[in-house]
Fold this protein.
Amino acid sequence: MAKLKIILDALGRGLSEFFSHNSRQPKAVYRKAELVDMSGHGTEISSREVAAVRPGRVLQLILQRYKPEAQTGP
């Protein structure tokens, strides 16, 4: 427990927070239907944004799929 407390202190978390169930934690898995389509129509590249509505996010995650022999530019 002492080692766990040291780690949690470094992360700015408490023991009670670590062991409690918090249903307000952000999702870790996003289903295909939850991804926001960012692709232009008629393109060989499919772009979908992951976690677009996640509160407090600091990164933009984009899932891209390329058709065979797709061109990405020069």
In short: Helices lie at 2-11, 15-19. The two ends are 56 Å apart (CA to CA).
